[in-house]
Amino acid sequence: MKVGAEEAGEPPMDAAPKTAVNRGISRLDFIMRIVAVIGTLGSAIAMGTTNETLPFFTQFIRFRAAYSDLPTFKFFVVANAIVTAYLILSLPLSIFHIVKSGARATRTVLIILDTAMMAFLTSGASAAAAIVYLAHKGNTRANWFAICQQFNSFCERVSGSLVGSFIGILVLLLLILFSAVALSRN
């Protein structure tokens, strides 16, 4: 009497390709989390250390621009720092998925938490982007003049930190999509 592969306790023939693909997605997940950590940590550091002082007529009267002058930039730094901490703490789960690619519960938890962190990071980056836009273009109706002609270094650093944060958002979006694909393949 012939016994089928499933009856003998062996995995079906098509399980090996699924496991290999899921393991590849898990490795990509780990690498992308490291890229997102670099982007969000760099954004938080760049914004948190941004300030510029300009002399005005005499050395005793100076104009200063610092990230701490605007609560929106403080929120941006905190949001990036929290997402960086989350991404670092999620690295062990990512490693777990490389070892055990069929884990469903932990992958579902990561999808939910990645979505929440992406929303949090998006809110911080979008709020900061609105302030950076006003710093570059100004708003004459509200008497908000463009300050980037005077505080050039400040504006360059702030704009650069936004780029890193939006890269982190894109990577989190891709992480969510890849995790969903891996979960659907189980």
TrEMBL record:
<feature type="transmembrane region" description="Helical">
    <location>
        <begin position="75"/>
        <end position="99"/>
    </location>
</feature>
<keyword id="KW-0472">Membrane</keyword>
<dbReference type="GO" id="GO:0005886">
    <property type="term" value="C:plasma membrane"/>
</dbReference>
<keyword id="KW-1133">Transmembrane helix</keyword>
<feature type="transmembrane region" description="Helical">
    <location>
        <begin position="162"/>
        <end position="183"/>
    </location>
</feature>
<comment type="similarity">
    <text>Belongs to the Casparian strip membrane proteins (CASP) family.</text>
</comment>
<keyword id="KW-0812">Transmembrane</keyword>
<protein>
    <recommendedName>
        <fullName>CASP-like protein</fullName>
    </recommendedName>
</protein>
<feature type="transmembrane region" description="Helical">
    <location>
        <begin position="111"/>
        <end position="135"/>
    </location>
</feature>
<dbReference type="InterPro" id="IPR006702">
    <property type="entry name" value="CASP_dom"/>
</dbReference>
<feature type="domain" description="Casparian strip membrane protein">
    <location>
        <begin position="23"/>
        <end position="170"/>
    </location>
</feature>
<dbReference type="InterPro" id="IPR044173">
    <property type="entry name" value="CASPL"/>
</dbReference>
<dbReference type="Pfam" id="PF04535">
    <property type="entry name" value="CASP_dom"/>
</dbReference>
<feature type="transmembrane region" description="Helical">
    <location>
        <begin position="30"/>
        <end position="48"/>
    </location>
</feature>
<dbReference type="InterPro" id="IPR006459">
    <property type="entry name" value="CASP/CASPL"/>
</dbReference>
<comment type="subunit">
    <text>Homodimer and heterodimers.</text>
</comment>
<keyword id="KW-1003">Cell membrane</keyword>
